[in-house]
Design brief:
Blueprint lengths: L3 E6 L3 H12 L1 H8 L3 E7 L16 E2 L2 H5 L6 E4 L7 H10 L3 E4 L2 H17 L4 E2 L10 H8 L5 E7 L2 H12 L4 H10 L8 H4 L2 H15 L9 E2 L7 H10 L1 E12 L2 E12 L11 E8 L3 E8 L3 H21 L19 E2 L6 E10 L5 H11 L4 E6 L8 E7 L2 E2 H12 L4 E10 L10 E4 L1
Parallel strand pairs: 1-2, 1-4, 2-3, 4-5, 5-6, 8-10, 10-13, 10-18, 15-19
Antiparallel strand pairs: 7-9, 7-11, 9-10, 11-12, 14-16, 14-17, 14-18, 15-16
Helix pairs in contact: 1-12, 4-5, 5-10, 7-8
């Protein structure tokens, strides 16, 4: 059978992994597909640097347009990243009748609607397994394997850099800055790790997961995002004492007419499966109404895990080409005419449990004042730990609350900060723990 020809845009880390996979695993791919996947052209600005794998010099070019416009190329693989010129390249490829594979989560999270609509109009496939979860096949799982399920929620640890930093802070007692420097030295963090540590990388991925789970267009602006740069080693320690780990958690939750989509540091109990996901690993915890609870775990980034996902998409599209079809599986899992236009819930309206750390003077009546502020805003205290150590003249008071409305917590935080007995703004972190439901208050002194 005629082979399927592939043009690659971007010969960086992931591109190198894709080339390596297509060349070194060519035989097994051909045995499984029944035809060959042939890499014909590679475009990159740097075509001199040796990537550790031999490719003919005639295959390399600096002219991406020549790859897109080559009539022999069936599938364009976009791995240059960023918004432009990646967006223009994908649109031109679709316009010219090419199918596209991309790992570009930032592009799809911000301009996905336009790109998917173009692919639909041109009757071409636009696949993106590698954009979310690296080597974990979460897109295929949500879109295909679990098609019969309504998703109650999906929780994820979606950024390996943040997970590594928080693991080091938890296990080795490092400060945030120390853990970040260690991550950089080991290659787990970029020289500029801003998109990782501010939560935006995880938010890009959550935008796509939310779209597939609930049939809404990707909308990064509707996702609430907090990063981990403000996490203090003190709160890591207190969380451990209370039986929790702090993780950067991405959550998308079905609330009936609305959905929640948020990324933020979260306390989760030690015995939760996600609490055991440490280091650079990623995981997705999915609750479906038919399948119940499932967990997907693996390397969420890196050359070869991500290349595995890219080549999987190439193979799927190649099979579609051989069958003479496109759009067999909707890009975001829902047929366009029955897509579910749920609204996103405002962060102020969410209901959660909370961890509060308040630095207060060690004086009778202070705890009662704080409790009074919380009670006035309908926030119940599940437990209180008043620490004995003095920090800059103040003692930490650590509280876990029952379920409360986010807007009330924010108002309470501002009012508590204004008390003359309180130093600095209270630390507020959300807690995901079903054990806190219907708990009676208790007070401990340590």
């Amino acid at each position: 059978m005629k082979d399927i020809k592939i043009g690659l845009l971007g010969f960086g880390t992931i591109g190198t992994g894709v080339v390596k996979t297509l060349l070194e695993n060519k035989r097994v791919l051909e045995q499984r597909l029944g035809f060959a996947l042939t890499l014909t052209k590679i475009a990159d600005l740097d075509i001199e640097t040796f990537r550790g794998i031999d490719v003919p010099s005639t295959m390399l070019t600096r002219d991406a347009a020549s790859v897109i416009r080559d009539p022999e190329v069936d599938i364009i693989v976009e791995l240059i990243g960023g918004i432009e010129p990646a967006k223009a390249f994908i649109l031109e490829a679709l316009e010219r009748g090419k199918h596209v594979v991309t790992a570009n989560k930032a592009l799809l999270a911000t301009h996905g609607r336009e790109l998917f609509e173009m692919a639909l109009a041109k009757k071409r496939d636009l696949y993106f397994e590698a954009a979310v979860g690296g080597g974990i096949p979460i897109i295929k799982t949500l879109r295909e394997a679990l098609i019969a399920n309504n998703y109650a929620f999906i929780y994820g640890i979606l950024n390996g850099t943040c997970n590594y930093i928080l693991t080091e802070m938890t296990d080795s007692g490092l400060s945030f800055s120390e853990a970040l420097e260690k991550a950089k030295s080991l290659g787990y963090a970029e020289a500029d790790p801003t998109l990782d540590i501010n939560g935006m990388d995880a938010a890009h991925k959550l935008a796509l997961v939310t779209s597939i789970a609930y049939g809404v267009p990707p909308d990064l602006d509707k996702i609430y995002v907090e990063g981990i740069s403000g996490i203090d080693a003190l709160d890591i320690s207190y969380a451990k004492e209370l039986g929790y780990k702090i993780k950067l958690l991405a959550l998308t939750i079905d609330r009936g007419d609305t959905i929640e989509a948020r990324v933020h540091p979260t306390l989760i109990p030690f015995n939760y499966l996600l609490a055991k996901v440490d280091g650079v690993f990623n995981a997705f915890y999915v609750r479906g109404d038919v399948v119940d609870s499932t967990l997907y775990y693996g390397r969420g980034a890196g050359m070869m895990p991500t290349a595995s996902a890219v080549v999987s998409d190439i193979a799927d599209i190649a099979r579609n080409i051989k069958a003479g079809i496109a759009g067999r599986i909707p890009h975001l899992g829902y047929m366009k005419d029955i897509s579910n236009q749920k609204a996103y819930m405002s962060i102020g309206d969410i209901i959660s449990n909370y961890y509060l750390r308040i630095n207060a003077v060690d004086r009778p009546g202070v705890l009662a004042k704080i409790a009074g502020v919380l009670g006035k805003l309908d926030i119940s205290i599940v437990s209180v730990i008043q620490k004995s150590e003095v920090i800059s003249g103040y003692v930490p008071v650590v509280m876990l609350t029952s379920e409360a409305k986010e807007s009330n917590i924010r108002m309470a935080s501002m009012e508590i900060e204004s008390l003359k007995e309180v130093h600095d703004k209270p630390v507020v972190l959300r807690v995901e723990d079903k054990r806190l439901k219907n708990r009676r208050p208790d007070v401990n002194q340590t």
